[in-house]
Amino acid sequence: MTDALLSAKGLRVHYHTRRGPVRAVDAVSFDLLPGESLGIVGETGCGKSTLGKAILGLLPPRTKVEGSLRFRGQELVRLAPAAFRRLRGEELALIFQDPMTRLDPLMTIREHFVETLRAHDRKLSEDAAADRAAKVLRSMGIPETRLEHYPHEFSGGMRQRIMIAMAVVLRPKLLVADEPTTSLDVIVEAQILEILEALRRSYGMSLLLITHNLGVVAEVCDRVGVMYAGKLVEIGPIADVFRRPIHPYTQGLLASTIHMGTTELRSIDGMPPSLLAPPPACRFHPRCTFARDVCRAEEPEKVEFRPGHVAACHFGRDFL
Ligand SMILES: Nc1ncnc2c1ncn2[C@@H]1O[C@H](COP(=O)(O)OP(=O)(O)OP(=O)(O)O)[C@@H](O)[C@H]1O
Ligand code: SF4
Ligand SMILES: [Mg+2]
Fold first, then answer.
1. Cα 82 versus chain centre, distance
2. Which of 6, 260, 276, 316 is least surrounded by CB atoms within 10 angstroms?
3. Any idea where the domains of the chain sit in the sequence?
4. 8 CB less than 6 Å from ligand 2?
5. Partner residues linked to 176 by β-bridges
């Protein structure tokens, strides 16, 4: 697809460690269309945040990145740090789980916004910057009088809204949200998800939402990608993947989610492997109840089993 906003092809991210390379993202391919929201799910350590960091150019210096990652046609693999800095904020934005780590306790919210906006437009006056900030905050139900307050004067949910406001004030084309609601209670979580959805609609922004919570993905996303041990093992439209999962790992994730609205993933028997030395062939074979010899000998290819619904399992047809 040529009209993708973001297109990953055979993307590999290997962290450099003293014990050898950690293959956190391995041969991952997918497209994200303008205005679309894609959820990325999987157990801990499967490479979700690494994928997010690769898109934003936030990987540690000695990390090896290979393959292709195109954003609006521009190759991000080996893009210079200065060019990445320009893209972040203006075109790509990020929100994390814990907003406190990104807010300076000694600066008011107004000062945060002025700094963010003027880093990208030196000519913007302080008042004009504050006006833009007030407008975005109002759209999220935060009165502009709160611009003069400091981060610690807000609740966790309010701080997360402020982080979102700061992320979108420059009208990015793509927002990467890594566990944005994990530390929040269910009611606040629902409000934050509503805000993300409303922003996506009003700004035509694309969203890459990384989460453990399948309920969150079901609520907000058009499509979902499932990562296991650095591989994207299944991707497809939400309803199709949730109702008729193909990959045994996806089946396991869904089966272990007791109540979709609120419960986090419970793990399938065993743990995801160390990515220093992942299992050969199908990386899921040590935990898969359907594994046969071929699973231990050959890596399964990605096959489009239904329109737009792709999975990598030797026996995918058996699960159709
Ligand atoms: N800076 C780093 N150096 C070396 N290894 C790393 C580094 N960051 C992450 N890893 C390893 O890469 C793998 C993928 O980690 P990542 O944080 O992307 O997983 P995740 O799916 O986001 O997990 P979680 O759900 O816990 O956030 C893990 O094995 C992790 O230990
Ligand atoms: S390829 Fe084999 S081991 Fe891997 S998920 Fe499919 S059945 Fe299980
Ligand atoms: Mg993570």
1. 23
2. 276
3. 6-78+212-319
4. no
5. 94, 208
How many C-beta neighbours within 10 Å does residue 204 have? 11
Helix (H, G, I), strand (E, B) or coil at 164: helix
Q: Which two tokens stand for residue 161?
A: 């809204």
Beta strands in the chain (DSSP E): 6-15, 22-32, 37-41, 64-71, 74-75, 92-95, 174-178, 206-210, 223-228, 231-237, 303-306, 309-311
Report the residue count for the chain: 320
Is the beta carbon of 287 within 6 A of some atom in ligand 2? no
Query: Of ligand 1's atoms, which has the minimum distance to the CA of residue 227?
Result: 21
Q: What pLDDT is recorded for position 267?
A: 56
Mean of pLDDT values over 92-110: 87
Ligand 2 lined by 319 (C-beta under 6 Å): no
Instruction: Quote the pTM value.
Output: 0.93
SS3 52: helix
CATH H-level, domain 6-78+212-319: superfamily: P-loop containing nucleotide triphosphate hydrolases (3.40.50.300)
pLDDT at position 101: 76
- Which of 202, 192, 255, 228 has the alpha carbon at shortest distance from 312? 228
